[in-house]
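quick one, 157 residues, struct below
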Amino acid sequence: MEKDRIVPLDLGVVPEAAVSGGLLVQSEYSAYFLFNAVRVRQDGQHVEAGTAVVAFHAPLQTRFGHPNDEARPGHPILGRNRQYTEVCEVLASSWLAEIERQNKVSFPDFHYSGVRHFVVALHDSTLECLARGIALEACVESYDAAFRLVSERIYGS
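---
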């Protein structure tokens, strides 16, 4: 299989292009990503959908920040004619392979079974996450409501 092959994922929403507003909330055991979301209608028009709360199941590692949309063409994986904003998965991830190589120093037979490489491309930044799964938890009206929802999930309040 070709290394670092990108396939789009359909979570029902994509980041809003002008002001994506990405926010990563992560602990050792969970990771949530919030962003201003839009739904893409059948006619291609974007309709505001509120604040998306995306959950990453059993996250292993995240990278959040650079590149933005203008620098993305220089990214070794994401620079290949990608959408302006999108959610996708990287198959045969070289990042995951590197993590496994690092662990083989102490654990020669270790393999991260079931871990996947996800990407959320925003206007001003990019999130990459190695995790066992991804799901849209909710789309709510405001960042305050989204943050409260994430706090409840993390702290069980």
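The mean pLDDT is 91.
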